[in-house]
Amino acid sequence: MIYFSPRNIPALRSYSALERIHIVSNAAKLMPFGRKAVANVLKLILLIALFWSVLYVQGIALKLITLLAIGLLYPLVLQPITISLAVPYIPDAVREFERSQAYAKNEPGSDAEDEESPE
């Protein structure tokens, strides 16, 4: 299944938007080399096709507008590739995220030391 947004992934529905992005990026880092290579080649093919299409746009003003549109929209085109290929690694990334959150809550020097009563 192709996921166009991290909010569509059932395992990530209980997290905030920033947490979902963090988890998906961690899942992408957990992908093996072959899977990362496939993702990067697919992204490269899409980018080449997008920029190749600029060659056929007539006029410099329209080319600039087209380049601006491609620059603004390319994350929307490339993000589904990364998300869809990283989905099998989401559970591991969620465990890693939960572990880092638990560590951050128990870290020395946090709120426990700030609540000392002055005497």
Automatic annotation (TrEMBL):
Entry keyword set: Membrane, Transmembrane, Transmembrane helix
Parts of the chain that traverse the membrane: 37-58, 64-90
Protein name per its UniProtKB record: Uncharacterized protein
Taxonomic lineage: Bacteria, Pseudomonadati, Pseudomonadota, Gammaproteobacteria, Alteromonadales
